[in-house]
Design brief:
single chain, alpha+beta, four-stranded antiparallel beta sheet, globular, binds zinc ion
């Protein structure tokens, strides 16, 4: 099991949250995206719901993932579960890796490490080579980093292993009134 690797969905509007976490959880239950709550090593997760496999598209021809924890043994390496953290009070930028480098779109050089940090729509950073400034929320992070206050995490997914279906993104948009995006957190 490798819960460090995960697929993370979030509203494109970086300051947006649904009315409450409870409202979001009810919606995800209704959509059968997730099912029973499940506690593991002091953390609250949910097992996947009946429609999860039509909402998250695995890129391999036959995904070898496990959804049911076995009480008696260690979790299998390919176990998948869902976590919806409490909404954050402040918007954060989350790099998909601990050592996250950004390739400057202007001079193409690989800039310094960008760390997790609180941001607003006015937050920017500067390329140390060409001195150009970039707004965090306007950068194309190419699904390797994300911003927001509200996140839905699918634990146990490697980068590019799976993506949200267009219908799931559409349902989330109808539910929340804003578009949704996704990125990967990984240690690979
Ligand atoms: Zn540059």
């Amino acid at each position: 099991m490798n819960f460090y690797n995960r697929l993370v969905l979030h509203p494109k509007d970086i300051d947006h949250t649904p009315a409450s976490r409870t409202v979001l959880m009810t919606f995800l239950h209704e959509q059968k995206f997730l099912s029973d709550s499940w506690h593991y090593q002091g953390q609250d997760y949910h097992l996947i719901g009946d429609r999860f496999l039509s909402q998250i598209m695995f890129m391999g021809c036959a995904p070898s993932i496990e959804f049911e924890p076995d009480e008696d043994s260690e979790l299998p390496a390919n176990f998948v579960a869902i976590r919806v953290p409490e909404f954050l009070s402040q918007t954060v930028f989350i790099p998909g890796k601990d050592e996250f480098h950004y390739r400057c779109p202007s001079c193409k050089k690989t800039a310094a490490i960008i760390e997790r940090q609180a941001v607003t729509v006015d937050s920017s950073f500067q390329c140390q080579y060409c001195a150009k400034n970039f707004f965090f929320h306007r950068c194309n992070w190419r699904h390797f980093a994300g911003l927001g206050k509200c996140f839905i995490e699918v634990m146990g997914i490697f980068p590019q292993e799976a993506i949200p279906s267009s219908s799931l993104l559409e349902q989330l948009k109808e539910f929340s009134g804003v578009g949704w995006d996704y990125f990967y957190i990984s240690n690979v």
